[in-house]
Amino acid sequence: MAIQKIAVIGAGAMGTGIAQISAQSGYDVILYDIAEPMLQKSKANIEKGIAKLVQKGKMSAETGDEVMERLSFTTVLETVKDVDLVIEAVIENLKVKQDVFKNLSALCDAHTIFATNTSTMSITKIAAVTDRGNQFAGLHFFNPATIMRLVEIIRGYYTDDATVEALQTYVASLGKESIEVKKDSPGFVVNRLMLPQFREAYLVYDEGIASLEDIDKALKLGLNHPMGPFELMDYTGLDIAFDSFEYLYSEFALPNWAPPTALRRMINANRLGKKTGKGWYDYE
């Protein structure tokens, strides 16, 4: 099935980025959120992003206008009923995601593919509340979605080949690379590999082996990472890292997945990263 019209559910940072890159790639996009202020903020951020591309000569002003014309913003869920692909990008909470897809399942056309942008949660569990497990998959973009090149396509237990192939074609049309996660395993590939590294960084810092600044420097200069683990956590949100550890610990029941004490202390102090102005580093 050819995907032409897309709905993105959730106008946070991830939803905004997915909507923008999709519209830039020629798709008609509906961005839905329950909160009008979130939609207005999202629209302003997309306009700002487009303006930067125009300023840098990477896009003409005319093309920028065409991109914005392909985007619509709404608080009315019924407007997404006839799209070809729905990408959910709401908070990392299983019940919230399931509630979203229950409503979408009753609303959307039978041909519509459902995808969740979850970074760790079971695709099969989320899909279980819908009427189309075969047309349901994980589509995990990375932040910022307009720049990061990788997208994980994750099979749920019932996901069929046609759905995976349609999503692979969509991802390629965005100018991105995809990998296929063949089993619905917590954390998929990237977070399964990255979160243990985060945990070791906490332990190295907590044991007084090195400062967080030097740990970040070590991974940037020693392993050629663009950001150190503490910088990256501040950028994406410490609460997201904490929730990911809690979910993986509940799934695997192994002590190495338990949320580290150092991270818990930061959460308790409401130091969640750049979004609160304070995380491992201060931004105010």
Automatic annotation (TrEMBL):
Keywords: Oxidoreductase
Limits of the 3-hydroxyacyl-CoA dehydrogenase NAD binding domain: 5-184
Pathway as given in its UniProt record: Lipid metabolism; butanoate metabolism
Domain 3-hydroxyacyl-CoA dehydrogenase C-terminal as annotated: residue spans: 187-283
The keyword Oxidoreductase appears for this protein: yes
Domain of life: Bacteria
Any Pfam family hit: 3HCDH_N
SUPFAM superfamilies: 6-phosphogluconate dehydrogenase C-terminal domain-like, NAD(P)-binding Rossmann-fold domains
Family classification: Belongs to the 3-hydroxyacyl-CoA dehydrogenase family.
PANTHER family linked: 3-HYDROXYACYL-COA DEHYDROGENASE FAMILY PROTEIN, 3-HYDROXYBUTYRYL-COA DEHYDROGENASE
Protein name: 3-hydroxyacyl-CoA dehydrogenase family protein
Annotated source species: Fusibacter paucivorans
